[in-house]
């Protein structure tokens, strides 16, 4: 994955130093390609959630099974390869299972498009939103410091879908599955009921000061309003998937031991001291209930392997920037497409097994 110093350089363009990030300079995702001739069964729509609280609109996207239509590469940009989708295509008939995806610190709603499109092909509706204050186009510390807002973003996203007539018919919003990468992995665990103990976390950081999560806290510091509740509440959580999550050591071990949703913990097999998977994903897996948890380390994967595939020459273009950001395209020995293929298989199997009909 590269040295700790290269990881710090890769993330230096965001408001705080973070390996849980994709910088605003390179990760802004737009639909830039022309029309693709062949129809796709995957549809895509973008929308904005404007429900309270005021001043926190959510730019969001939904991937869904569709009846097809002209497609474009969604999320395609000079660095990352987009995913084909039929923009605003009709939704396939029926009531579909709902999945929410949370991006990492400094990332955006297209970071896991490679996984969302696969799930849509498998019959799921997949929604993702930019988290204000911790997204590539909005890194304001005043909005990003209270990480509790991230879990409330997910509840607002479900509420919007449930209130829209077309989507309320297309999704079963009574149960959801949650997927998150990096800080997004922390977000979905917190949203599903894992209890955050910042006092314990800060004491732990004295023993592990090099972890990126600890450095973020020193820079912000992190706020988590444990008394605040989602408005409205998040529905029942059928399953959780974390992709090389960070900030895991902020979770109280007792709450993890009692964590109810079946949880798939996927870790990068290659890591440095900044993002030590044994201290993050390993801590999570060690404390979750054995019978409801599956832990997998993907050999050859690095932290950023869970972003989209990089285009030829992207790493060189990133390295030429100031600061250099090549680690966004660095993997741990395996090519990113193979990492994605293994992760897709694991995630689809996990959701199919635990979501139920």
From TrEMBL:
InterPro entries: AB_hydrolase_fold, Peptidase_S9_cat, UCP031982_abhydr
Extent of the signal sequence: 1-29
Transmembrane segments: none
GO biological process, one term: lipid catabolic process
GO molecular function: 1-alkyl-2-acetylglycerophosphocholine esterase activity; serine-type peptidase activity
A Pfam family per the record: Peptidase_S9
Key words of the record: Hydrolase, Lipid degradation, Lipid metabolism, Signal
Superkingdom: Bacteria
Domain Peptidase S9 prolyl oligopeptidase catalytic, first and last residues per copy: 114-197
Name of the protein this chain belongs to: Peptidase S9 prolyl oligopeptidase catalytic domain-containing protein
